[in-house]
Amino acid sequence: MASCCKRPFKLLGQAQDLTYTLLRSLRSIANGNGAGVSEITLRERLQLCAACEEKRGLRCRKCGCFISAKAALRDAECPLSKWPLPR
Ligand code: SF4
């Protein structure tokens, strides 16, 4: 399949990932838990992303998210499972 034909499917997957992340974060907030991560966890995630082959500029090529925004959300997950559990 040509890469132009795969693009809508990739965008759909990225939109689905973002939707799940936002819904999990909203649930955490509704349950009285914060949605953010500790400074240590944020730093760990950003360091892993900085060394990742999927990082393109400010975004993750795998999930399409802006890394600094996604890494700050406790319920967000790395699509390649590179992030450790939040502390
Ligand atoms: S979220 Fe995961 S896949 Fe994306 S850039 Fe960071 S470490 Fe890489």
Return residue spans where pLDDT drops below 50 for at least 5 consecutive residues. none
Across the major sheet, the strand order is 1-2
Q: Total number of helical segments?
A: 3
Q: State the separation between the terminal residues, measured CA to CA.
A: 42 Å
Radius of gyration computed on alpha carbons: 14 Å
What can be said about the biggest beta sheet? 2 strands, antiparallel
Bound compounds, each kind once, are:
iron/sulfur cluster
**Into which percentage range does the β-strand content fall?**
under 5%
Q: Provide the residue-averaged pLDDT.
A: 88
What percent of residues adopt helix (DSSP H or I)? 40-55%
Structural class: mainly alpha
- Total count of strands: 2
Element order, helices and strands? HHEEH
Write down the overall geometry: flat
In brief:
This protein has 87 residues and is mostly helical. It has helices at 3-30, 39-50, 67-71, and strands at 55-56, 59-60.
